[in-house]
Design goal:
The chain is built from three helices and no strands. By secondary structure, the protein is mainly α.
Length: about 100
Amino acid sequence: MPDSAAEQEKIKIDVLKRMKRIEGQIRGIQGMIEGGKECSDILTQVKAARSALKSSSKLIMKRYMLKCYAEAIESGEDPVEAMDKFVAVMTNYME
């Protein structure tokens, strides 16, 4: 099993790279709108950006879950309580 802190850091770096790419996609969409591009082309790019955000969200959730579990173990907290916290965050995100 990989070191939790190392795995969390790896995910953090990956998510930050993805966010920079998404930022570029959003700027590209803005340029398309300003340039009067076809709605279908703009919507295709919006769909791609939305998909990238969804994929990044999964990684952020994974990192949060690893962090909650690691902190629970380190502090002697009940792992079930840590998972309950994670479920609450995930449920709130899905609403």
